[in-house]
């Protein structure tokens, strides 16, 4: 029966199979390969779980079923065996009940068709979401070099070198005293402070103090590293025990004295310093400890008194210049500045008097003058500044004298915004001419410059300086008067 062209086209479009074309990418071979890859991926995902996954053939029939077995036998056997195999199959069907299908809810056809056994539509990603994730990548072995990092079979030199390179290294296998000491000596040999300290920390943790101190006494390099380490971590107790064992009395006393830094309460710190006075310090250190105790004792007295005066508001200096900080635990120079600022005019018999502090703590004249000058110049008390440098000789004549040099006096006064008149007075007292001219020019003290050039009888310098002053100013008139004078014999 002949078919029309339309019927043939309809037949080919509705056919289960697809005609072969060279231009078609989705040919039967490609589909076969993709189907095989999909099946292999499903097999990997479900981990070959025969109980939960139903296996099917390419025809869609479950693998292992009777129909599948018959077809497989028929395809593998010849025509002569076909009748006998069918007969055996019928006999088996009649003698045995039908095999039940697996109770799995998933099948290969349902994955591709997008529905489960129960009939509900389900995508491939949804169907696979119920499968617990597994890591199927093979677990590779670590390189032997990495396992060696955690090994404990190194020699002493290898262990020390690993410590030097900063690698992981356990020292627990060194259990005997001899092994530990050999490890310490090997660390000292390479002259690496970090390695020595690491070994000392291990020895500190695993040895008693007596044994550790005894062995380090004959190993001075390691001993110095341990002392430095204990100071860094602040282990005062073990440091004191070590100095006591080594009979280093001065270092023991200084180490114990340093504990006052951890005491915040002034009264408790004062009592602690008092207990340190009897420690075996050197002569110089013993004097410093005594001065520290005396200074703190006076600071406590001054602080209590000044706090009362400031709160009452009866003292003018505290009203104009309120205190910015407490005087407690301040250095001696700061205490002297504080005393010169707030208690400069007090009699020598009081604890807060600057003269009393100077005599008690034997403050040098230069230090006292520098501190008092800075304090009184800050208050712009120029009369006190003048009195600070005025001295009288045995005949009653007054003279100005500065143990720090008047050039430094001028610089301090200028920092505290002293007026030009005050600066000129002390610049004139500078003995070196070049220094005097430099200071006068720097701080624009014109009168001092003009007078100095006049005294030097340097007409050229005076004429040159005339160009630097303002026109029609008092300084210009003064220079013109000096230049026109006939009483001066100029050098040039």
From TrEMBL:
- Which part of the chain is the Vps16 C-terminal domain? 175-276
* Gene Ontology MF term list: protein-containing complex binding
State if Protein transport is listed as a keyword: no
Its annotated compartments are: Cytoplasmic vesicle; Early endosome; Late endosome
Family matches, as InterPro entries: Spe-39 (IPR040057), Vps16_C (IPR006925)
Q: Which GO terms describe its cellular component?
A: early endosome; Golgi apparatus; late endosome; recycling endosome; vesicle tethering complex
**BP GO annotations:** collagen fibril organization; collagen metabolic process; endosome to lysosome transport; intracellular protein transport; post-translational protein modification
Question: What are the record keywords, sorted?
Answer: Cytoplasmic vesicle, Endosome
Taking the first listed entry, what is the main subcellular location of this protein, grouped into a coarse class?
cytoplasm
PANTHER family, alphabetized: DEFECTIVE SPERMATOGENESIS PROTEIN 39, SPERMATOGENESIS-DEFECTIVE PROTEIN 39 HOMOLOG
The protein, known as? Spermatogenesis-defective protein 39 homolog
Identify the species of origin. Sarcophilus harrisii (Tasmanian devil)
């Amino acid at each position: 029966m002949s078919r029309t062209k339309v019927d043939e086209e309809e037949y080919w479009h509705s056919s289960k199979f697809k005609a072969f074309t060279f231009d078609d990418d989705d040919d039967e071979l490609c589909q076969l390969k993709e189907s095989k890859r999909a099946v292999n991926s499903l097999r990997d995902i479900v981990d070959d779980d025969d109980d939960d996954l139903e296996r099917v053939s390419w025809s869609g029939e479950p693998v292992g079923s009777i129909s599948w077995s018959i077809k497989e036998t028929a395809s593998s056997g010849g025509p002569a065996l076909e009748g006998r195999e069918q007969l055996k199959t019928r006999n088996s069907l009649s003698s045995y009940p039908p095999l039940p299908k697996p109770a799995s809810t998933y099948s290969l056809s349902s994955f591709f068709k997008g529905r489960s056994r129960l009939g509900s539509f389900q995508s491939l990603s949804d169907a696979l979401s119920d499968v617990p994730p597994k890591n199927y990548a093979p677990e590779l072995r670590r390189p032997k070099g990495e396992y060696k990092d955690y090994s404990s079979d190194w020699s002493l030199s290898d262990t020390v070198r690993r410590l030097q390179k900063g690698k992981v290294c356990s020292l627990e296998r060194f259990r005997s005293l001899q092994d530990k000491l050999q490890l310490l000596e090997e660390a000292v040999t390479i002259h690496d402070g970090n390695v020595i300290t690491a070994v000392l920390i291990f020895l500190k943790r695993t040895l008693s103090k007596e044994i550790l101190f005894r062995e380090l006494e004959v190993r001075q390099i390691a001993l110095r590293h341990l002392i430095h380490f204990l100071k860094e971590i602040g282990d005062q107790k073990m440091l004191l025990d070590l100095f006591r064992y080594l009979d280093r009395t001065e270092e023991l006393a200084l180490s114990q004295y340093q504990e006052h830094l951890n005491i915040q309460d002034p009264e408790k710190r004062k009592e602690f310093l008092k207990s340190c006075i009897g420690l075996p310090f050197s002569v110089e250190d013993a004097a410093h400890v005594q001065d520290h105790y005396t200074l703190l004792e006076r600071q406590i007295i001054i602080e209590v008194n000044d706090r009362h005066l400031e709160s009452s508001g009866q003292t003018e200096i505290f009203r104009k210049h309120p205190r910015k900080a407490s005087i407690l635990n301040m250095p001696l120079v700061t205490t002297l500045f504080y005393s010169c600022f707030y208690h400069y005019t007090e009699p020598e018999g009081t604890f807060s008097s600057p003269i009393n502090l100077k005599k008690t703590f034997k403050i040098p004249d230069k230090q006292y003058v520098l501190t008092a000058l800075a304090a009184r110049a800050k208050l712009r008390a120029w009369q006190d500044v003048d009195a600070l440098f005025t001295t009288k000789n045995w005949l009653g004549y007054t003279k100005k004298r500065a143990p720090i040099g008047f050039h430094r006096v001028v610089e301090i006064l200028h920092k505290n915004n002293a007026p030009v008149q005050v600066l000129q007075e002390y610049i004139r007292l500078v003995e070196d001419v070049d220094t005097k001219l430099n200071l006068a020019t720097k701080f624009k003290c014109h009168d001092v410059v003009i007078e100095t050039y006049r005294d030097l009888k340097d007409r050229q310098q005076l004429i040159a300086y005339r160009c630097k002053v303002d026109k029609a100013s008092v300084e210009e008139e003064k220079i013109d008067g000096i230049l026109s004078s006939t009483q001066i014999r100029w050098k040039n």
